[in-house]
Amino acid sequence: xxxxxxxxxxxxxxxxxxxxxxxxxxxxxxxxxxxxxxxxxxxxxxxxxxxxxxxxxxxxxxxxxxxxxxxxxxxxxxxxxxxxxxxxxxxxxxxxxxxxxxxxxxxxxxxxxxxxxxxxxxxxxxxxxxxxxxxxxxxxxxxxxxxxxxxxxxxxxxxxxxxxxxxxxxxxxxxxxxxxxxxxxxxxxxxxxxxxxxxxxxxxxxxxxxxxxxxxxxxxxxxxxxxxxxxxxxxxxxxxxxxxxxxxxxxxxxxxxxxxxxxxxxxxxxxxxxxxxxxxxxxxxxxxxxxxxxxxxxxxxxxxxxxxxxxxxxxxxxxxxxxxxxxxxxxxxxxxxxxxxxxxxxxxxxxxxxxxxxxxxxxxxxxxxxx
Length: 371
What we know:
The chain has 371 residues and is of the alpha+beta class. 35% of the residues lie in helices and 31% in strands. It has eleven helices and 15 strands. Strands 3, 4, 5, 6, 7, 8, 9, 10, 11, 12, 13, 14 and 15 form a 13-stranded mixed sheet that branches. Strands 1-2 form a two-stranded antiparallel ribbon.
């Protein structure tokens, strides 16, 4: 399914380019550009004509081939990428938008609608929604009702299916734009009066949170920079989608810290069968690039942070915590540890994930207990 939608997206992009440059395209144009058999291109064009993505400009006349154009060639989809990660009965929905305004619009209306979405965060053009599996009633409609909402999320095998109800502009996005977003395998649509309902299908990806600490020395280096480098390195792998990078401050009065005692964590989405390979690559990268022999990595599958794990992260901001404490928490939370003393801060970094920057970066009124 994913391969078909990717091929559809690729072919439509080429057809749009020909339409904008020449005013039309032919079967031969697309076959030559893609090195795909003419019969296969004809099948695709027939399908896209049926879907009203392509229109016939001129019928075939003698030896003159038929000419086609893509519809709405000047319209750019606002939905750039949509993907989903899972953690038990929870799903994280990532929507990377081309427009800050559109992302803010969806954030506002999805909050108003409620539905199965329990928490929403937005960072510029990236909207992240944490939803539980199941269905919920949400009254979608014209003002003052919400214009769009996620009313259901379910898992079928390796796929996550979102049910979205909408009206007006969001309905146009659902019917004409979301299917073109990278990561969307298929969109199934039904109409009921003013309301459009669609099922948006994407792969159920694995979510990894990777905490890092103690990768620098007083002579050089910075953990935040190496963490960002790791995110960029892993992001080049075909199986990986970069999600984010953050810095968290820990207990500021620790004698052994190189500067302000900060740690970092990154988040990635990836195919489930690539988890071990990606972790191996991550450990090798940090082991090679770290300036400190005390580097530490902690890796957690999933994005749900338990009270005990979050408690450890908060404790590491207020006092000195030990490797034994970190190992106990990691064992209970099925967190994999690598390296040396830095694994303390690495576990704490994971415990602080999903917190906002005010909590991550400001330890608050922490007393100096070093004397």
